[in-house]
């Protein structure tokens, strides 16, 4: 596939930014927007013919859906998030085949792949394939649903204005979501832990268990066509090893191994769960090998740091993608983020405690703020310093100082909020990681609306 992102990635090392840059995905605002726009072609609406008898609908919603045409019916791989978008994809597929749907396959249980199934089905009753354990241990605990909803809206920029919207890294900026999950049909055939090889509508098809983004994921292999459907264990972006909307630990090591297993098939075409397919045995196999290696490298570097006794914050600033991988078009951090992955691995394996006794029982935020003010020479001085660093476009530090100031009883908390809003927008403009950018902008809007005036999270 085309590689415009590579050019931009190479610019990164030449970019100068005011203030301390604390992430890996901050560049000057013009480059950031250009990079995000360059990703747009990965999810522009199209029916892509990936083999004589296989069509993939890209950009009909956030994820992809595919149709495999067999002798007396078709197979649908993934179904988008709701029936409205799925119906449009189904209609587009019908131009290529009007054979009945014999089977639907869910690569994993995330709603953007399962919620539109009913739109593909008429009077027929297709078999619906999913893994054993489908839907288990992949989502957020229901107890934290209320905050999960808010954080999810921020990560995806659901409430941003058109002027603020760019995209979601591996999906368009906005999608039809009012009917999410309404077309869901329950699986009727369980793929066992050992996988399954079968023939559906005359098409030989294999289901291989492949935990990664979710524990219940599988990839689909068509041995005759040599086409591989990866689900969300591969797409054109560094993988979302952790989602900032809040997710339980995604087993990073297993994810890397699952992708390595896919590479062994040397597919002629690789169809991701999101973004455009990759054609050609060499290109597909290399992409999968690189992807697996990148995940493994982040994991291994993190483990080294952990065992050296370093804190997650320290390791998050040290771990980088290897030189030969970082500019690959499918490893730019448009969606996933290396520093976030590091923190996720740390807490996934060891929990929240970083091993440093200082952090066993730290001061309460308000106490810390009062002592910071004392160090600065009083609340007024701390407030002035907060404004100075904002002026210098040292946005991350401005955020951190504003968080201290907001705790102080004698501070101008309204001013602190304004500084935080401005710093968030400054950071957002520099971000080409879509979830970070969307989160910064959404949070700034939430603060501005007054909805977060008492508690800023
Ligand atoms: Zn997805």
UniProtKB/TrEMBL annotation:
GO terms for biological process: dodecyl sulfate metabolic process. It is an enzyme of class 3 (hydrolase). Residues 62-274 form the Metallo-beta-lactamase domain. Pfam families: Alkyl_sulf_dimr, Lactamase_B. Residues 1-20 form the signal peptide. Keywords: Hydrolase, Signal. GO terms for molecular function: linear primary-alkylsulfatase activity; protein dimerization activity. It comes from the Bacteria. Residues 159-187 are annotated as: Disordered. Its EC number is 3.1.6.-. This is Putative alkyl/aryl-sulfatase YjcS. It comes from Bremerella alba. The gene is yjcS.
């Amino acid at each position: 596939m085309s590689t415009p992102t590579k050019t931009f990635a190479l610019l990164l090392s030449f970019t100068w930014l005011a203030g301390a840059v604390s992430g890996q995905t901050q560049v000057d605002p013009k480059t950031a927007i250009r990079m995000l726009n360059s990703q747009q072609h990965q999810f522009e609406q199209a029916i892509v013919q990936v083999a004589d008898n296989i069509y993939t609908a890209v950009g009909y919603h956030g994820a992809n859906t595919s149709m495999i045409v067999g002798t007396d019916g078709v197979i649908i791989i993934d179904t988008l998030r709701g029936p409205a978008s799925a119906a449009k994809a189904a209609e587009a597929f019908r131009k290529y085949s009007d054979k009945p749907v014999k089977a639907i396959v869910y690569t994993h249980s995330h709603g953007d792949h399962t919620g539109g199934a009913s739109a593909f089905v008429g009077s027929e009753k297709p078999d619906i394939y999913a893994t054993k354990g489908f839907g288990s241990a992949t989502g957020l605990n229901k107890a934290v649903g209320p905050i999960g909803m808010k954080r999810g809206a921020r990560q995806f920029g659901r409430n941003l204005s058109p002027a603020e919207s760019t995209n979601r890294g591996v999906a368009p900026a906005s999608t039809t979501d009012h009917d999410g999950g309404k077309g869901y049909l329950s699986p009727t055939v369980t793929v066992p832990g050992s996988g399954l090889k079968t023939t559906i509508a005359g098409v030989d098809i294999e289901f291989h268990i492949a935990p990664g983004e979710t524990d219940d994921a599988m990839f689909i292999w068509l041995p005759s066509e040599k086409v591989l459907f990866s689900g969300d264990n591969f797409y054109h972006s560094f993988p979302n090893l952790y989602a900032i909307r809040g997710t339980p630990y995604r087993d990073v090591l297993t994810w890397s191994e699952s992708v390595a297993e896919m590479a062994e098939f040397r597919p002629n075409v690789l169809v991701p769960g999101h973004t455009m397919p990759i054609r050609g045995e060499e290109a597909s196999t290399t992409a999968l090998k690189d992807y697996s290696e990148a995940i493994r490298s982040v994991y291994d570097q993190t483990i080294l740091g952990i065992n050296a006794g370093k804190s997650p914050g320290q390791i998050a600033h040290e771990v980088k993608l290897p030189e030969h991988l970082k500019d690959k078009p499918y490893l730019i951090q448009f969606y996933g983020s290396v520093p976030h992955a590091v923190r996720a691995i740390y807490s996934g394996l060891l929990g929240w405690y970083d091993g440093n006794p200082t952090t066993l029982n730290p001061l309460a935020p308000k106490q810390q703020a009062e002592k910071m003010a004392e160090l600065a020479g009083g609340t007024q001085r701390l407030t002035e310093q907060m404004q100075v660093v904002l002026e210098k476009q040292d946005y991350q530090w401005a955020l951190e100082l504003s968080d201290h100031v907001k705790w102080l009883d004698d501070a101008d908390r309204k001013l602190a909020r304004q500084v935080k809003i401005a710093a968030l927008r400054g950071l957002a403009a520099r971000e080409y990681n879509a979830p970070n950018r969307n989160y910064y902008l959404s949070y700034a809007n939430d603060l501005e609306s007054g909805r977060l005036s008492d508690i800023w999270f």
